[in-house]
Backbone:
């Protein structure tokens, strides 16, 4: 996603874009081949994008951070002393810190206090963005001027950015949707069809709203690009990692065996565990997450979980009768 | 969908279910083969479901109406004199009347005044429902007791029904989503990928809300099963008729040629036209519908339409800055 953002920003000739790659060898290879062969094979990095492993050489008016949540704390700790300026930070990081349940912008604030942060989120597979396929995202910040700046920096013919003031909701949605993606994958693995999967995504969205709002998010965010938009891509795309994990679980594989067989990180697994415990403590109803948790961590049979989900007390969806 | 509902209701041994089929020959064949070979091949209609072509023999405590919108007015006109009782009506009809823009329940009220009506809607491909695959729907009525009755009549282990008081929104969502499905199909036809399609569905939902609420719908309905749930199934499923039409348009076919080649009814085409003109009159912004209209009826190039959609004035998504 870091490379994809560099490509996007470099399309504007007024931007000077520096792509920082921490490994000296990889940075050298990138600069020589002008191609991120590992993640974006076949996509040329244009000449104007400078590539460096020297963090001190990256002093800029603004920073785009694309470090996976799981490495974010360590990276910031290491980088803090050398951080060149206090320019605003655009986070394209999706996920919550496993141990602390903190959002990326909260971790950034710990290490770079005083920096302003915007989250750029929504349905955005990096491969598609890098290949110039259209996408629409949302730039969320507590500071209006920064959200509008990010919108202006990134927007172009095939990349449309909306602004939002809900940083909390935008970051939460990006993490919570991974739990729904695991559930949607389980639904696929059970061979349940389109009706069941769409209903699951819809009811998953309802509990994302309930949980997110209890943490200070705005409901509307979940009905926008960072919410339902990202839920759809993540649950529907064949390439979604969390969906794929769910599908294997739905077909009968066990979590331990899957985790032992790969080095991939499945954010949805740990987010499910965190959300489950947090919701339990606070008495927030999250039936989909609860069943995902029980299937993943308590060995519950997915078919039984689906049945339990379908046969709970009958509910009201909308209106003043509740 | 009528057959699928009969199968569902007949699973409860307390129900006496009569399946009415207007054509005498077809009713006789159905009764002999116990199979709707045309729409649901391979699905057995169980013994307890009575099959008749004699409308007078269908006197019942409640009626499920599954007549396509385009035939509804004629059918009700013909049936009205013989309508056996004034039991409540459950409409599983999706769509708006082309000439009048009326919802199914409004047409029903014209011919059967005094009958109470509930709409049962949500992601519900009949094939999946008939084959016992799980689904969750919403029963909406202005009369709470009827919504709760419908919920009770239909709910079972693999079919979960929520209640809603928003009949208007539920019926509007079922029709408006077909326009978004055409747009999503065009997106597929252009080869635009998951990011673009999810964003289009999300922004389509935003304008469904805007348009629907101007007609008296409740916003929340569009974020529920009859709204986003049905949008997802209709836009994602390979079998969706409106999505398929859009895909052919996106690949360069013209509407006239497609319509001339088939007897299929594409509700989304006519709904797009109605919504476009209605929104224009009232000054409601419906950018996705507008581009669909221009592509279908004014021969606009789909790629130009996509570009115009992406490069409009930059917008705010959510929050008090608007």
Residues:
């Amino acid at each position: 996603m870091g490379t994809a953002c560099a490509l996007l920003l470099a399309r504007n000739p007024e931007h000077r874009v520096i792509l920082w790659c921490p490994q000296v060898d990889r940075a050298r290879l990138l600069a020589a081949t002008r191609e991120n062969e590992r993640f974006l094979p076949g996509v040329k990095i244009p000449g104007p994008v400078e590539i460096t492993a020297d963090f001190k050489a990256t002093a800029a008016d603004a920073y785009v951070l694309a470090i996976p949540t799981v490495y974010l704390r360590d990276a910031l700790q290491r980088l803090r002393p050398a951080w060149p300026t206090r320019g605003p930070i655009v986070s394209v990081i999706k996920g919550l810190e496993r141990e602390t349940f903190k959002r990326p912008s909260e971790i950034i604030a710990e290490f770079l206090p005083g920096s302003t942060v915007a989250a750029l989120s929504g349905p955005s597979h990096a491969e598609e963005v890098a290949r110039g396929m259209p996408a629409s995202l949302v730039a969320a910040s507590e500071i209006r001027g920064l959200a509008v700046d990010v919108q202006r920096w990134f927007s172009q013919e095939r990349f449309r950015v909306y602004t939002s003031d809900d940083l909390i909701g935008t970051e939460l949605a990006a993490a919570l949707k991974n739990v729904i993606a695991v559930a949607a994958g389980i639904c696929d693995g059970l061979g349940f069809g389109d009706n069941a999967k769409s209903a699951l995504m819809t009811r998953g969205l309802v509990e994302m709203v309930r949980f997110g709002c209890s943490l200070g998010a705005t409901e509307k965010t979940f009905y926008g690009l960072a919410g339902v938009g990202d839920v759809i891509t993540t649950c529907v795309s064949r390439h979604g990692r969390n969906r794929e994990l769910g599908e294997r679980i739905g077909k009968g594989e066990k979590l331990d065996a899957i985790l032992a067989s790969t080095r991939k990180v499945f954010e949805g697994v740990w987010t499910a565990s965190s959300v489950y415990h947090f919701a339990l403590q606070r008495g927030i109803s999250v039936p989909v997450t609860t069943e995902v948790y029980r299937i993943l961590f308590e060995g519950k049979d997915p078919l039984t979980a689906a049945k339990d989900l379908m046969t709970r007390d009958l509910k009201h969806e909308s209106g003043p009768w509740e």
